[in-house]
């Protein structure tokens, strides 16, 4: 929970932040609309807005652009210059880096597709550093100044640390990213988080207020299966930062052994490797996973019985594991993201059947849908986490004048 | 998340509340200690304390009782008069009602032991009304004024409502307690909550700050198995208020059918009925459940193999369901409360074995222990929820002078 403000100074910071979020949510907007949105007087809002204009966070678009009724005020928007967030994802088969400005626009994006699983941390992080350098340079050329760097990884990250405790599909173990990542320019604050968490945050922040989705489980599958749990609009991180390990919820307690030490975990039925194996599809060479999944999809479309059976089994297992999660968490929605999203037409029917049969509370079966954020969810969530840290407490990022 | 204060008025309310919580946590305490604890100046604290003395929430104990070093200040304590919380539990076999004063002391307690499962809501709630009348009358005689009534029920309660959607072990369905409960005296605000939730809150509020248990799953078994999930010191309620249905987490997806519509739910292995059936122990007549559980315990102590096998199976099932919960939530502790607490010597070893083998993250196996709150947990949590609503925002409860 946020610490409540105890001083005038903290209250002013909070109110500056609320004005910025109001502009971020409403697009170009007048002072009067901001006042109405956040429940402060017009005079207070004007004072706050002047400060934010002076500090370079807001720009004035001139009269007549606020889109409202009545006398047009000068519409305000978030600057397209100044602080930006740098977000990165280290995937098993790809690297992605982007720069997002305060208005939430992706201004620079770079990526490469190469298998990272066998390359070793040093080599992967060296390539990531070059990508970061390019993105930071291009962002600078566009008038943007990185306010921080956030990195999504497919592994367990200790809470409030930059240490990847374990990323089995990368073969990493106790890898501290702070020791490896140093993009050009002044040092940046670094945040590291499980990719499923950043994907869930992207869903929370980018899917629009209208969806009213503030309680959901966002399933995020690449090679492993993770989940980001958002409750009351807050990411659930867990005591050590390890919450959301949906892939290791027991589905058949006496089922196949899992690398985690357990047996019958969800990943043994719905993980990519298990799914492809059950469908009799081999993974070959670089880019092999993507090609194999495309083959599975094509076979399912052709009605291939082995593929359909494997998908039904995976969907059922997802439904059983998610029933446990739904009975414990009572979310409004379950969202399927990552690699599994492309297989939703086959996975969702058995998944929803299990949920309907097994959810304990009547009328508490959550909505099940495909995630709105695409495959860039983790890097977008990462970049936006930096942007939001600026919007939360803008003054330290003000332009010196 | 608490709404941040946006005005002087809200900031004052928040600070009055912080002073009261500081006194509640530290026992008799000087103004200087309060200032040190909450990080306000001594002058601000003195002003706040004067207001709380005038309003009747604090009393001054005279010099020399603060227990600290240096010049003794006048020690302050919470009043033993004035507002109190009334808490009640509707159990399957009992009713409990208590009154708790602002200092957290139980001042009145009444209970009866009778099976409520077949009696029907009207009859049970009529008996509860008489108990409530006696407790409110006795509390009044002790100088206490009920500030609210909170009721724990073994069923699903819609969030922010007084409606029991379903309480299978009572045979209740859409029973709105507001329509039935009317203790003597002025009308009281009513809060209704699942018993597992109030038991978990009692654990959070009453087990002492020192335990640092602010992230835990509190398993609460009576006839059914529920859980209260506390994360970062906040109860997880879920979108509809139905979170914590641990009893219906699938343990063996193709296991025995459950009344919830699913199959192989935890309750089918570790619920009281399943446990007694597996041990070959029959439940007979009124008070039969308690007697049967005592018999199970006695037989286990004597080394009866059927009883030990039933307990091992239940402990293992608890461990499987809790592994799912632990992998999703990453809590610091798992606490066993309710009827299962008495069987902990037999349940915990297999439970912990499953947790150790199946928890995905290394070093993330939570502490497993027996709950510190006894069988009165639900009614105590209920009463304290009222007390805390007074401490949160005291002024509406001030004594008129």
From TrEMBL, chains A, B:
Q: Which InterPro entries match?
A: ATPase_NBD, HTH_MarR-typ, ROK, WH-like_DNA-bd_sf, WH_DNA-bd_sf
Q: Domain HTH marR-type: where? A: 18-59
Cross-referenced Pfam families, in alphabetical order?
Answer: MarR_2, ROK
Q: Name one GO molecular function term.
A: DNA-binding transcription factor activity
What family, per the record? Belongs to the ROK (NagC/XylR) family.
Q: What is this protein called?
A: ROK family transcriptional regulator
Question: What species does this protein belong to?
Answer: Streptomyces bathyalis
Its taxonomic placement starts with: Bacteria, Bacillati, Actinomycetota, Actinomycetes, Kitasatosporales
